[in-house]
Design a protein that fits this description.
Length: 419
């Protein structure tokens, strides 16, 4: 069996599972973000009284943090009341950050677990050797009542990443290159196992970037075999004992894709689809793309490494007049570390606006949204019309280094000139 199949088998009390089977599995942790007050309503409508385990579920207030309107504030109020009523051990309010960052920091994510959240980018947690997947409000309500959820055992495809990344090629570039080949519907309800020596040598932040965007190919979940960086990270934080699962030798994947990372270059996902991927070089060759805003943040591009890359490029420089750069750390811990190391100060001196940790403009409702006709280069994960404000704005997805170099020049720019 594959490691993902072993996780499903373990949590469903079975010796083995096979592709296509329906299993009911115990959930190790459940998370509800602040878009999903309906989960609370559905819980009560179905007869729920108390959550099945007050140490295995949490709310994370990240999409509306801090609240931009009365409606979201009212939602937060009702969710806080539910959390207090159920005496939830873990509650992440507006001072914490993005769910996919704060949960690993709190030690709630570890190898061999199943984590389900009301957010499609829960695939991020495959970076830790966990099975992470998203669900809707009604399914989450049943989890809060029973601690279980049904799954169809997915087909598993291999994305093998071999080689060493050249200068200027970051994990965001790698996953964009993968997306451009597999496309947005190439892994629907499949699991993606990222393998190869590039993955084996990748740090925690880089692994999270790649697993995060697996869902942009339609994947149900993502997986990476934990390396020493992951084990060191988890061992310092995990709130429970954990068991790493390993794929059996000779396991046959449903499909395999092989990429030579050493031959890659910086990439862009151009408007208005995440699969509309082109090399940065080819976009620049077609002519200048003038920018109104650069944006560095989200569960894809707001970690310490991302902000450090931007600060390294922008230190001692300043963005042009009438442009703007928005920086949104993924968590309070990330923000503290970036302040201590001087990155925030350097970015502010360069003209950046620093927002509170959270999702911010990535969902298009506050803290950096775009006007009609504006163009933004962003380290986030989606660029469909309206994702960051006006449906008439244009979004280019790129690495944080590319964002920083580009906004510095007021047009899409190759970051390798500044590294």
């Amino acid at each position: 069996m594959h490691a993902i199949e072993k996780i499903l088998a373990k949590n469903s009390g079975r010796a083995e599972v096979k592709t296509g089977e329906i299993v009911t599995a115990k959930i190790d942790f459940a998370e509800i973000n602040d878009l999903y007050l309906q989960t609370v309503y559905s819980f009560y409508e179905m007869g729920g009284e108390k959550v099945w385990d007050n140490e295995r579920c949490a709310f994370v207030f990240d999409h509306y943090a801090p609240c931009p309107d009365v409606k979201s504030a009212s939602n937060h109020k009702e969710m806080r009341e539910f959390a207090k009523k159920n005496d939830l051990r873990f509650h992440f309010d507006i001072n914490c950050g993005v769910c996919h960052q704060v949960m690993p920091e709190a030690g709630l994510i570890y190898p061999g677990m199943i984590v389900v959240a009301t957010d499609s980018h829960t695939t991020t947690h495959g970076a830790f050797g966990a099975m992470g997947t998203g669900c809707g409000a009604t399914d989450m309500a049943t989890i809060l009542m029973t601690g279980e959820m049904w799954f169809r055992v997915p087909e598993i495809i291999e994305v093998r990443l071999e080689g060493e990344a050249p200068k200027g090629v970051f994990p965001k570039d790698v996953i964009l290159a993968v997306l451009g080949r597999i496309r947005a519907d190439g892994a629907v309800y499949k699991a993606i196992d990222f393998t190869g020596n590039y993955v084996e040598n990748l740090n925690v932040a880089g692994r999270m970037v790649i697993c995060n965007m697996a869902v942009e190919m339609g994947a149900k979940t993502a997986y990476m075999q934990p390396n020493q960086d992951v084990l060191d990270y988890v061992s310092k934080r995990a709130v429970r004992p954990y068991e790493v699962q390993f794929t059996d030798p000779g396991y046959e994947y449903a499909e395999s894709y092989v990429f030579d990372v050493s031959a890659m270059e910086p990439e862009l996902a151009c408007p208005s689809s995440v699969e509309n991927v082109h090399t940065l070089r080819s976009v620049i060759a077609e002519g200048d793309v003038a920018l109104n805003q650069g944006y560095i943040g989200s569960c894809t591009g707001g970690r310490e490494e991302d902000i450090a890359a931007a600060a390294g490029i922008l230190k001692g420089k300043h963005i042009p007049p009438y442009t703007r750069l928005v920086i949104v750390p993924a968590s309070a811990e990330v923000m503290k570390n970036c302040i201590e190391k001087g990155y925030i100060q350097d970015l502010m001196d360069a003209g950046a606006t620093i927002n509170a940790p959270g999702c911010a403009a990535c969902l298009g409702v506050h803290e950096g949204i775009l006007a009609p006709g504006e163009v933004c280069i962003t380290s986030t994960n989606r660029n469909f019309p309206g994702r960051m404000g006006s449906k008439e704005a244009s979004l280019y997805l790129a690495s944080p280094a590319t964002v920083a170099a580009s906004i510095l020049n007021g047009k899409i720019t190759d970051p390798r000139h500044y590294l």
